[in-house]
Each structure stands twice: as C-alpha cells, then as structure tokens.
Amino acid sequence: MRNHKNAMVALAFLTIASVLLAACGTQVVTQIVEVTKEVEVVQTQLVEATTVVEVEAASFTKPHPLLGDIRVRQGIAYCTNRPQLIASVYPFVDAEGQQKQLMDTNIPRASWAAYDGPEIQKYPFDATKGQALFDEAGWTLAEGATYRTNADGDEMNLKFTTTTAAFRQTWAAVFEKQMAACGLRIIRLHAPASWWFGSTTGLRHRDFELGAYAWVGETDPKGQTLYACNQINVPENGWAGQNYMGWCNQVASDAINAANNTLVREERIAHYKTFQIEFAKDMVSLPVFQRAEGNAASSNLVNFKPSATEYYTWNSYEWELADGGDTLVLALSQEPASMYSLIESAAVQRTVGWMIFDSSMSQYDWDFQPAAVAELSSVENGMIQINEVEVKEGDPVVDYSGTPTDSEGNLLTLTSGLKVKTSSGEDVEFSGGTVKMNQLVATYEFQPTLTWSDGEPVKKADFELAYKNDCDPASGAVDYSTCQSIQSVDFTSDNEYTVTYKPGYMNSLSFIPPIATYPSHQVLSDGRKLADVPTTEWSGLKEIAETPLGFGPYILTNWEKGVKLELTANPFYWRGENKVKNITILIVQDTQQAVAQLLSGDVDVIGSETLGAGAEVQTVIDAQAAGDPIQVLIEPSATWEHIDMNLFVP
Fold first, then answer.
1. CA-wise closest residue to 321 among 583, 603, 579, 582
2. What ranges make up the beta strands (E) of 446-523?
3. pLDDT at position 425, please?
4. All residues at 6 or more sequence positions from 261 whose CB lies less than 8 Å from its CB, including other chains
5. Coil, strand, or helix at residue 270?
6. Which residues have a Cβ under 8 Å from the Cβ of 404 and sit 6 or more positions away?
7. Is the pLDDT of residue 46 over 70?
8. Does the pLDDT at position 279 exceed 50?
C-alpha cells in the first residue's frame, strides 16, 4: 500500500487494472490508516460489502453531555492552535508551509472539489472566542480554578484516545496543554493500534469521546461511507459503517450521497460545496493538519515534480539534467517484491512501475490528467452514457452501495429483498415485478501510438488478454470488484474498448479504464507465447515479475536483488525521446545513508518514501541553506490528522 500518498494515492491502489500496463487505472479506496514509520497498522476498507441498515432510535441516541453541544465542539476548535501542533512534529516547516497544511473541511484546499467561500465556518486559533463558547454552554471557570465546571459542579473533561505512535504522542501532548489553557481537562489514552482499529473494539464500537487518527485523502474525495446518515455504526446494525461520530445532518448526508451518484463534474462540485458548509458548521470532526512529506534531489535535475497525490516518477519522461548528463541515480529504502502489479501494490513498486509501464492517467496535484488514454472519458464528452433500463428478477445487478456480490462472494442478481438504487436515486428493496435502474456504458480510448518496448504496437489482443487474465479468480488479484461489476466488454479496435456495467453501478471513478493490457505477442524463454500461459503461472514468470515489457519511458534491463535496478531509455516510447538515458535505482535501506549519498553527489533523487518527514529532512534543508546543490520540496501530503467527536453515548 502506498504509505505516504493515498498509504490518495497515500494509496492501496486496488484495481483490477495493473499499473504494470499503461491502461491501468489506480482506484484508491483506502479509508482509515496510520502512515508514519511509527504506525502499527494499516486498515484498508473497500466500499462496504456489509449491508448497512438504518435503525430506529436505540443505542447511541443520548447526546454526549459535552460534545452533544455544538458550542463545546466549536470552542474546542477555536482553542486548538493548529500551527503550534504542526511545529511540534515538523519543526522544519515554516509559517507559510504551516498554512498550506491546514484544512477547513474534510477536503484538502488543493483539491478540485474543495470550497473556500464565505459560507465555510473557519476556526483560526482564538482562545478568547473558544472560552466564550464554553461559558455560553454553561461550563465556567471559577476564580482560581484550573478546569471548568457546570452548574452541578461536574468538571469539564474529555477522554482523548489515539495510538501509541511517537508522532501522535508528541502533538497530542501539546493539544492537551492547549485545552487546559481554555479550562478543559484532556485525559489522554494512547491505545495499541490493534485495539483502536480493531473489528470489535475502539473506533468500530465507538469507544471514545475525542478520537484522533488519520485519513488518506484521495484525488476523488468520495466520503459517503464516512459521513452519510446510514453509515453510523451502532450495535443494532452490527457496528457496520464508518460514521464514527454518529453525525446525521440530513442536508450533508444527501449532498455527500448525491456527489457520489453523478458523474458530471459541475454537479459533484456543487454537492461537495453543500456538504463542506454543513461539515464545517457542525464541527463534528476537526481537521488538524495535513502531514508533511519531503522529497529531495540534486539541483542538477530539471522537472522534478513530486505531488501529494501521485508518485514522483510520474513525469520521469520529462526529467533532464542541467549539465547535459544522461545518467541519474535514485535511492529507494525498500525493494519491490515483483513488478507484477496485479498482485504487488507496494509504493516502491508503483514508483518503479511508472517508469516502465506508464499509466492510463496521472493524478498530479489533486486532479486527473490523461496519460496513456487519449482523453478522460466523461458524460460531458459523450464517452460515458447513463441509460435507464428496466430490470427484472434474476437479472445481474449491483446493490445500492455499488457492491456486486453478497456476503459470501456470490454475484448478485435482482431478488426479493435486495436493496438497489433506482434510476431516480432512491434506495428501495425489490419486492417483485421490475425496477428502473441506471446502467453505465463507458468507452475508453488510448493513445494510437502506444508501442511495447520491443517495438511491437499495442493491439486489441493485448486488452483482451488482460481482461481474460485479470478477471480470472485464479490470478491472485488483490480485488475483483470491478471485474464483477462488468456486464460485457466490446473490444472495438486496437486502441479502444467499451464496457457495459451492470445496472446500478455508478462509480465516480468510472472514467478510469478498468482493463489493462499485456503483450500477447511476447515469446517466453520456454518458447510459449504469453497469451497461451495459464494465469496461475504468471506470478512466477521472470518476463512478468522481473523483466516485463511496458510502454513507459524506460526498460528494466538489469535487477540485482537487494542492490540495484538498472533502467535504460525506451527507444519506442510513444511520447518521444528521453533526455535522461539511464536510471540506476539503488536499494539503500538506511535513510541517513541515502541522505549522505545525496549530499556527496552519489545519489540524485530521494523520494518521500525514503526521506520521510523526520530529522533527515532537517539535514537536507540545512545542507541546502548552506549552499549544497540540492533542491528540497516539502509539501502537504494526502494524509491528514483529525479529531473525531463522538456526539452520543450508549
């Protein structure tokens, strides 16, 4: 999983389409993570396969004595000096950088979906205003007292739960002091991540008052599984859902659902605007800051453009050495296990993969740009069509949440009691007859000049092979949900195919091509063609795992395990000739050693997955300030810290 990007992008890139191939779509569905080196766990949540049932008032319907009052929640926000929290863990970030790390809603400011208009309630540090809100809520500070009390003499205190990670302990200690300055006692509990993120404990069972953890933001904001009213987890629905605050603002809920039930960008922006206004006003979850991440490179490298939502090698075809050189050295702290992207999703594999395979599109700077696809498919350009169809019992469908299978993994058909989404957007239980549903048909067009690194043009058979292999349950793919949502595919030419999805499938990322491409013509060392090899053998093929063909800017020519990977320029690259002809990737597990090699000139690039955001960042910043020929780029990452507020008690 991508440990710093979307741990967007940071970002479990789970898709049936392998980044191994330029047609690959990188859908990020990671929801809840801990991403720093100190982190104990990563939890990846796909769109909930478990049916989430709305329940009548029962458990968790009694307002929390403090957090049930919006004045207390807003007071906490005003009393939080977020730049000070950032400084406690990132002393190398200046005041300007701190402002870039702050968020006003659940969507980072740089996102295409972010709204920053006057209707957004903002919470700059203002302890006076925060204390006044506490006073209004009936929590007053007696003369000479340290902590506030109410009319009954109860002390104002809240349990603050988070992980044992050193990073989190550092800023949590500062937060505790900030709240004390406003008269609120914070009782910190640093719990093991196995408990905090457990399936029967911690967040899942809403066993907290204030809870701190991290989300990994995505280029596509999604959000309905986190904030919709029907995603509140309570005992009555088996604790299903990720709305751990118990927040049900119907305007916000309708908006977040609507934003994810249309593929028209302008409509989505409008719905996200409505949602963000309500989110900020109600203050149920305080965005603390986006984490920082550092990338460093020789100042000799031109066009080095790392991004929070994309791997920094995404534009390696543009790299150039100012002194006219043609060889570059890159350091990685980890080594890919395999270059077979269908089963290997580590960040380092994706970093190398971009150079070998390209991708269907990039996600630079919180938005999507075409790469191997000629243009992004959309409703606006007619490449995506939404047709109303009449579905009867027994027809294949996906359910109201977009899930194609039942709890046992069986493909869904329309049967009595199945909850589906109608063409008008209503969630209904099928009880017989027919129901009108939307069916999405998408056409994906690729660059006509795509050519494999052996000089063979990409052709229709390559896409057909990818569909056959990647959707085979025996392939060992990380996820089959997209395959299972496809009703049929029409491979119309060597650079285009059309997918008809099952009725009810309405994924906001439908513009990402779901089918990759493999070199069907490739002859293996044993004389067989790749197209004739059973899918169960693919992961063990050297031609797939170690020396794959691609149509990216570089060819992997040598791999000395544990030491280095060597790449040379692809002479058949569809974008044209590269300025940098050779790239050597050294495996340098020790970050300090990698930094030392950068400063000595033996290494030209250290990405965020190696440099991180610790003391080594300060080292390269100091070296740059002292005149060393390096460039250091510190930016807000896709991962953001937040404090959830549990609005109700059992």
1. 579
2. 486-493, 496-501
3. 86
4. 421, 425, 506
5. helix
6. 398, 411, 412, 481, 484, 485, 502, 505
7. no
8. yes
DSSP state of 457: B
Distance CA 308, CA 294 (A): 10
Q: Name the E strands within 531-611.
A: 554-560, 564-569, 582-587, 605-606
Phi, psi of 277 (to 5 degrees): -60, -45
Output helix, strand, coil percentages for the chain, rounded to the nearest 5.
Answer: 25, 25, 50
From CA 405, how far away is CA 180, in angstroms rounded?
A: 50
Distance of CA 485 to CAs 215, 398, 413, 498, Å?
27, 7, 11, 14
- Residue 453 — pLDDT band, cuts 50, 70, 90? very high
**Assign residue 528 a region: left if phi > 0, alpha if psi is -120 to 50, beta otherwise?**
beta
DSSP E strand stretches across 571-645: 582-587, 605-606, 630-645
Bridge-partner residues for 642, per DSSP?
Answer: 213, 287
Give the model confidence (pLDDT) of 97-136 as tens digits: 999 999 999 999 999 999 999 999 999 999 999 999 999 9
Tell how strand 157-163 and strand 185-191 pair up: parallel
Average pLDDT of span 277-302: 98
* Residue ranges covered by each domain of the chain: 292-370+537-636, 384-445+454-501
DSSP 112-128: TT---STTS------HH
Those residues whose C-beta lies under 8 Å from the C-beta of residue 528, and which sit 6 or more positions away, are: none
Tokens read off for 166: 């050193």
515: DSSP letter? -
What's the Cα-to-Cα distance from 412 to each of 133, 435, 644, rounded to whole Å?
51, 15, 35
HSE-up of 345 (CA within 13 Å, CB side)? 30
Q: Please tell me the predicted confidence (pLDDT) of residue 478.
A: 77
Give the β-pairing of 210-216 and 630-645.
antiparallel
185/521 Cα distance (integer angstroms): 68
Specify the 3-state DSSP secondary structure of 299: coil
User: Residue 301: CB partners within 8 Å, gap ≥ 6?
Assistant: 319, 320, 321, 322, 328, 604, 605, 631
- Calculate what percentage of the chain has a pLDDT beyond 90: 86
In the DSSP assignment, the letter for residue 441 is: E
- pLDDT tens track for 138-177: 999 999 999 999 999 999 999 999 999 999 999 999 999 9
The tens digit of pLDDT for each residue in 218-277 reads 999 999 999 999 999 999 999 999 999 999 999 999 999 999 989 999 999 999 999 999
Tell whether the model's pLDDT for residue 438 goes beyond 80.
yes
Quote the CA–CA distance of 203 and 195 in Å, as a whole number: 9
338: closest CA among 556, 519, 27?
Answer: 556
Q: Across residues 560-588, what is the average pLDDT?
A: 97
Least confidently predicted of 48-62, 204-218, 344-358, 619-633: 48-62
**Residue 449 CB partners (closer than 8 Å, separation 6+):** 574
Cα separation of 178 and 208, whole Å? Answer: 20
Please, what is the average pLDDT of the chain?
91
User: Which CATH code is given to the segment(s) 292-370+537-636?
Assistant: 3.40.190.10
Nearest partner of 386 among 511, 200, 208, judged by Cα: 511
What average pLDDT does this structure show over 290-301? 97
